[in-house]
């Protein structure tokens, strides 16, 4: 026997291209079975799985490690190390368990690994297996991108009517994308759609009658036809990400069914007032509030409606282009009134709530009004940053002196304790005196160390915090008005927490030092000379620039420092 080791035979076969040249599961079982017989290895369990090892989380691999951790096995038998792992997480677990002697032996087809071995070679093999995956993924993405740039859509699934030349539908030579047996059906369906006499439901029935089927042999649902007639692939175009990950529109070399003009005409026929009918994702940058009355969350709702010029009925034009009452089409209406607004309102999930919604425009006006109240100018921002650095420099020097004094006092008390022990040994003081003096000294030492701790606690980078708020408040109103959805969301998050909407008014908690900086600006804005740079002479007579009068201008900033250290907040509305 091989030291009476209990082996787990682990066999893995990936269904992905990385392992197409590797031995199959049956071949691995046969070969490693012979290895186990020749080396007289005791296999207590065999684990097989068909899953890529490029990412952690394989069920069979985790079960193998669990059996080893429970002591039911202590060795592994596998074809190669890359069968165990192709990612650094799983490879690191194997290496660590081997180093800790939890795994006492790993036997592959060509070599073995033991705890006493140099783990460098194992790490090299695991690293090569992981790098293979990284290179393969990069090469695959590059190859697909280059194929897309050449005019051939590299996606594995193509719309009905098309197939890759090596697919099961149409094997053989030819261009990369060819027309399959469903291409004539799609041509007929597109012509029917262009006639304007068929609805999507009717076209779905026509497609089913003509034999249009998905890969699983089932007829397509009505929703699938909406995707077909909004897919630019049928007019010769498609989108694919470039080297920077941005989707780029490419003109394909495949045979189109309709022209771009015909495609755009179909989009108008589908509805949405001349826009393609598709699921539209709206961004709501002002979400994250709760109702000030019932506490439920506030949701956003986008309304896209039109008022019929014939019967004056208001209806949604998100999914239709005709009036549901009189049937008048939007294209036949003369200057119809169109409503395109976003409303924020309570979800009312907890029952009755009297709060009404308000438009995104009204909500933004309230936010802009708040931002305008404490938005800092560029001039004040520059002054405040320099002033804060001045304060911090002086405070740091004072703290250093305070720490040095306390450290010196601590050293004196420690020396006194040592002297008391020597004095007792020389008989200069009695035992009771020693205990009394030692108690007094230890009490003083505890107090000194407490003061030291308080000094360190006060040494918060409050200037860094203040600069962060100053950077935010600098011309924040203009940034909110001109910024995109993402910047508006970030500004709203920075304002504070507990955003509440009640009676169409917004209230939220804001850090108190925002108000302090605003108060400082109100105090200083009329004293323009405080921001002027002036000449001064040091003791050597050289000229330097200073900020004056620093003592008066900085007084309000001490309040900001105090509020930052205390973490105070105030409710604004």
How are the secondary structure elements laid out?
Blueprint: E1 6-12, H1 25-39, E2 42-49, H2 59-69, E3 75-77, H3 81-84, H4 88-99, E4 105-107, E5 112-113, H5 120-149, E6 162-164, E7 177-179, H6 183-195, H7 200-210, H8 222-228, E8 237-241, E9 247-251, H9 260-270, E10 290-291, E11 298-307, E12 314-316, E13 337-346, E14 358-359, H10 360-374, H11 378-425, H12 431-458, H13 462-473, H14 476-482, H15 485-495, E15 497-502, E16 505-511, H16 512-524, E17 533-537, E18 543-547, H17 550-553, H18 555-566, E19 569-572
Parallel strand pairs: 1-2, 1-3, 3-4, 10-15
Antiparallel strand pairs: 4-5, 6-7, 8-9, 11-12, 11-13, 13-14, 15-16, 16-19, 17-18
Description of the molecule:
It is flat, with a radius of gyration of 38 Å. Helix content is 46%, strand content 16%. It is an alpha+beta fold and 573 residues long. It has 18 helices and 19 strands. It has 5 domains: 6-135, Rossmann fold, CATH 3.40.50; 162-270, Hect, E3 ligase catalytic domain fold (Alpha-Beta Complex), CATH 3.90.1750.20; 290-361, no CATH class; 378-464; 486-570, no CATH class. The strands form 6 sheets. It has a 5-stranded mixed sheet, with helices on both faces. Strands 10-15-16-19 form a 4-stranded mixed sheet.
